[in-house]
Amino acid sequence: MLTDEPRAERLLALTGLTPDALREGLGNRAVLAAVLEFLAGHEADLVAAAIALDLPPQDIAAAARALAA
């Protein structure tokens, strides 16, 4: 996902994360929730991530909902 520069820039802009905060926060529930919410909110990004991770898109969306609760 982050190899696609426009997508990466949009992720950072919409989540308010910096590249360093993203790297450092990968084990942080709030950071994971922000990334998954970003994916769930943009179908093209959700599908691209699902393909890259070999997961159904609905699994990513369910994880986003679970972390947001």
What number of domains?
1
Poorly predicted regions are: none
Instruction: Please state the structural category.
Output: mainly alpha
Query: Would you tell me the overall average pLDDT?
Result: 91
Helix content: over 70%
What's the end-to-end separation, in Å? 24 Å
Write the layout of secondary structure elements.
Elements: H1 5-15, H2 19-24, H3 29-40, H4 43-53, H5 57-68
Helix pairs in contact: 3-5, 4-5
Walk me through this protein's architecture.
The protein has 5 helices and no strands. With about 70 residues, it is mainly α. The chain has one domain (about 5-69). Helix 3 crosses helix 5 and helix 4 crosses helix 5 (about 55-69).
List keywords for this structure.
single chain, 69 residues, mainly alpha, 5 helices, globular
Question: What is the structure about, briefly put?
Answer:
With 69 residues, the protein is mostly helical. It is 75% helix and 0% strand.
